[in-house]
């Protein structure tokens, strides 16, 4: 014979913890949806080619490019044979060649 009263609900501390878990879950769901929305809406803009890149670059024969960078009125190509070729942006002419020396 069990004369103990039946429990009517969760204790107050546990009820508050349950509420916090629900709020955290909703916050995480809203956060993930927001991050996905930002990535989807910004990605087409990030994939566009910058307007000021040259259409083509003519490198000396036998030269293979490994990197590219640009400034306001120049662009540079780093080659596989450790040279930096600096070109004029307006004319495309080679301005300067910098030879890199290896190692320590």
SS summary, helix count: 1
With strands numbered from the N-terminus, the spatial order across the biggest sheet is 1-2-3-4
Range of strand content:
15-25%
Count of individual beta strands: 4
Q: Give the H and E element order.
A: HEEEE
Whole-angstrom Rg: 31 Å
Uncertain segments are none
Q: What structural class do helix, strand and pairing data support?
A: alpha+beta
Major sheet description? 4 strands, antiparallel
**How far is it from the N-terminal to the C-terminal residue, by CA?**
88 Å
- What is the arithmetic mean of pLDDT? 85
Which overall shape is indicated by the principal axes computed on the Cα atoms?
Answer: rod-shaped
Helix content: 25-40%
What does this structure look like?
It is a single chain. The protein has 104 residues and is an alpha+beta fold. The protein has 1 helix and 4 strands. Strands 1-2-3-4 form a 4-stranded antiparallel sheet, with no helix packed on it. The longest helix has 35 residues. It starts with 11 loop residues before the first helix and ends in a 5-residue tail after the last strand. The mean pLDDT is 85.
